Each structure stands twice: as C-alpha cells, then as structure tokens.
Amino acid sequence: MIKTKLAVTKLDAHIQKLAAACTQKTLALWASDCANRVLSNFEEKHPKDDRPRKAAEAARAWANGEITMMDGRLASVGAHAAAREAATDLAACAAARSAGQAAGTCHAKMHAVAAGRYAISSLRDRLGLTDEDAVLIREREWQLARLLEIDGEGNESA
Length: 158
Prior knowledge:
The protein is mainly α. It is about 70% helix and about 0% strand.
C-alpha cells in the first residue's frame, strides 16, 4: 500500500503550538475549513463517494452542537475508509484523510493539526510540488491566518 508522506513546512510548529491553546470547537471548525479546500482532489476521482465530504461537514456540525461526538467519530471512520480505497492516488487519499482527521477532532482536538497537514499534503501531491514550494507555503499561511481568525471569534470549549 502507498502511504501519504505528510508535507513539512516552516509553519508547522507555530500552528501546533497555537492549536494546543485553542478550544476543541475552534479546531474542529478550522480543520473542516482546511479539509474543504482540498476535497475536490478526492471528489474529482471518486464523485459518488461522499464519505470525506460528510466527515468535513460532521466536524462543523459537532462544533455547532448539531451532532454527538460518536456521530463525528463514525464520519471520521468513513472518511478514512475512503482514503484507504483511494490509496493509489496520493492527493485523493490525503484529501480524504484530511476530512477524516477534521471529524476526528470531536474526539481529540489535536486531530485538527493532522487535518491541516493532510490538506497541504493533498495540495502538494496534486500539483507535484515540494514541501518548500511557495504555493504550499501560502496555503499553510492561509491555514494559520484562518486559525487565528476563528480563534478570535471566541468559540467556547467543548
């Protein structure tokens, strides 16, 4: 089986440190946003498989109090199953894993950090970039800015 090698950028440590101080709901919203930016990498190849989309939606629904943690975990498991089925396409697999990690945030908040890293890995693999490519760095900068924006909206702890 081919495994996704996670992208590594200079912003990873900063994002991880910031995430550690954020609420779980903030991180679920952020992880959903990160996953949504790359879901097309999965959906273009697997248009009938909505498990990753449902997982990204579940992260947001959990943060908004619309579903339970167990509902979110089930959505996460579904997205990861879709990722395994798409394993030969690294960009699609990483996009599905990003969504699965986003939904997994309802169970453990640091899954959100993985959602962001899988999202940039999907972008890297889709475009054939290196970890140092400016496009990848700009996406990671967007992730950081978005996390700061959501965190500033005052979301309460789950």
